[in-house]
Amino acid sequence: MNLLLATSGQFPTYFVIVYVVGFIAAVTIGSIAWYNSKRPAGWENAQKPDYIPDVESEEPADSNS
């Protein structure tokens, strides 16, 4: 609550709320993308958490034809 009161003189409160929600969304989407990406060296056999959804990758198009 102090964050909203501290910023009320400089920015409207809804700007701060939009920034906070955007940050949380970016961290969440980035975490899902990271967990579904190729594993870094040493993490090949690590299990991903159950709450991370599986994302299927599409086969790359054949550019030789």
TrEMBL record:
Keywords: Membrane, Transmembrane, Transmembrane helix. It comes from the Bacteria. InterPro entries: Psb35. This is Uncharacterized protein. The chain crosses the membrane at residues 12-35.
